[in-house]
Amino acid sequence: MTGARRAALRSPIETLGATAMQVAREAGGITLLAGRVLRCLVPPSMDGRELTRNMYRMGNRSVPIVALTAFFVGGIMVIQAGMYVRQFNATGLVGWGAGYAIFREIGPVLIALMFSGRVGSNNTAELGTMTVTEGTMTVTEQLDGLRALAIDPIRYLIVPRVVAMMVMLFILTVVGDLVSIAGGMLFSRLLIGIDPSTFYYSLVDNLDWIDFVHGLVKSAVFGLSIALTSCYFGVSVRGGAVGVGRAVNAAVVAAAVSIMLLDFFLTFLLP
Amino acid sequence: MSEDRPATGPRQRIERLGAAALDGLAATGQLAGMLGATWRGVVRGRRPPGEVANQMFVVGNKSLLFVAVTLGFIGMVMVYQSCLQLERITGDLSRIGPEFLKLLVQDFGPTITALMLATRVGAGIAAEIGSMVVTEQVDALRMSGVTPIDYLIAPRFIACVVMGAVLTVFGVAIAYLAGGLTAWSSFDLNPRLFFDPSRVGFLDLCLGLTKTLCYGMAIPVISGACGLRARGGSEGVGAATTAAVIGSSLAVIALDLVISGVGLLLVGHGR
Predict the structure, then answer these.
(1) Among A132, A247, A268, B20, which residue's Cβ finds the most Cβ atoms within 10 Å?
(2) Which member of B73, B78, B253 has the closest CB to residue A72?
(3) Contact indicator for A220, A164 with CB cutoff of 8 Å
(4) Chain B nearest CA to A30, separation (Å)
(5) Of A114, A39, A32, A12, which is closest to residue A72 (Cα–Cα)?
(6) pTM here?
(7) Which of A241, A244, A257 sits opposite B70 (nearest CB)?
(8) What's the pLDDT tens digit per position in A219-248?
(9) Is A267 in Cβ contact with B267 (below 8 Å)?
(10) Which region among A39-43, A86-90, B140-144 has the lowest average model confidence (pLDDT)?
(11) Residue of A134, A66, A140 whose CA lies nearest to B250
């Protein structure tokens, strides 16, 4: 680490270039992986049992953490709205404000971040462990080994995970949005004394289905990006236990950046 | 985290819920003890010379680009979405800049920066300490009479508290700037109307600072605890890193809810 610091102090341009190269290499690797996954999906064929196993593991098992996060987030949004309610006495707008923010932005983004922390990093660790426990074998050799057994590693290992993560993040966002609204109703009753029915009508009168769908489309795209980054960093692990830790770290960072970037572009593209 | 489906009777469900709640309570107690031990280590523990500066570099400088990218994009998205909705409902965008800054200072700036730190730094701490545990370096430290908390966690703790605050200020500035540019380019809002800090009060600053300091303390302690608990090879390191990301993100959101709730009550009594 001291070496890294000295290098950074010596030549910022050099570090900037190295970072740019690293980012370009990772982005390229992820794109290639996306292409190979897509090729397996064109006539959709994959291991069905592997798919349902992954869906259960990634989806059902994440419900508690997603529900807890969403519940807290609903409370936070209502508290923020409550500051304005105190000021302007605008009780009729809390449901609208909280609902709009949760459906379009905060819900999908925060649930995706939690999903990336739980499922994405778990996935990287699992694929990475699979990769390093093969001892001196590199990933490509291991994949060759699977291929020699007439098992396509992308089709068998990666595709079910990608599909499962996309579908499950979408469903979890639906669940999370609803829990969030319920949490918002509860906290607005407790903290600022707004009736749940006032909250509800403020929400349904001012919001459209399109606001809800806007967030769900985002969540499916986030799911795809989390899946691709976590699989990429998982299969490119080098060097034992230290390497696995580092890969998980890199995967969650890359997923967070891609969530924010995609959020930006999707906000402008979607109605 | 076994993969087979657990027994599903109503009684087992309730038992599992209770067990999860008890586990959560026990973990909270352990973390509180660890926070105390870390403070003791900060005040009068031995640590390697230069380690604090080194960790500050790792936590602060190396996260600069990550925080700038994520906070910049989220700032643009938030302003765009709110302008879109406000234009539809009231048509008056002149208040958006001051209100955005207030929201950013007292809630979103600290919280989103801390979520990003939880992914990047939290995962990094757990991966590093976890690798040291499974390669028996921590045992070697204990053998030579050094407590791992003083030696490993205290420097990271100081670095996270200080650099968390610095990065939050930086992140708020970036998000505000990016938001102002979006409002100017997409909605023709005069930057002089947007960049107006008049709505930010003393209480907002206090609230934001309190949150920043609490997050800065929570992230290294939780991630360090996850790292120290790592057992058994690369699998253990992967699991520790995952647990650190989830634990510290959830802690940030829960702390946000609690501190915002207290803040709302304070505002209510102040008026």
Answers:
(1) A247
(2) B253
(3) no
(4) 19
(5) A114
(6) 0.88
(7) A257
(8) 999 999 999 999 999 888 877 777 888 888
(9) no
(10) A86-90
(11) A66
A97-132 residue pLDDT tens: 889 889 998 999 999 999 999 999 989 988 888 776
Residue A193, by phi and psi: left (phi above 0), alpha (psi -120 to 50) or beta? left
| Cα separation, A201 vs A91, whole angstroms | 11
Q: Output the CA angle B155-B160-B161, nearest 5 degrees.
A: 100
A interface mutation test: which of B103, B108, B253, B262 has the most A CBs within 10 A?
A: B253
Per-residue pLDDT reduced to its tens digit, A145-197: 666 666 677 777 888 899 999 999 999 999 999 999 999 999 988 888 888 88
ipTM score here? 0.86
Q: Which of B87, B95, B271, B179 is nearest to A83 (CA)?
A: B271
DSSP B135: T
Of A166, A160, A144, A145, which Cα lies nearest the Cα of A37? A160
Domain ranges of chain B: 47-270
pLDDT (0 to 100) of residue A151 = 67
Distance CA B267, CA A141 (A): 63
What dihedral do alpha carbons A69, A73, A76, A77 form, nearest 10°? Answer: 180
For residue A41, give how far its alpha carbon lies from the nearest alpha carbon of chain B (Å): 26
- Rounded to whole angstroms, the Cα distance separating B147 from B151 reads 6
For chain A, give every domain's residue range. 47-269
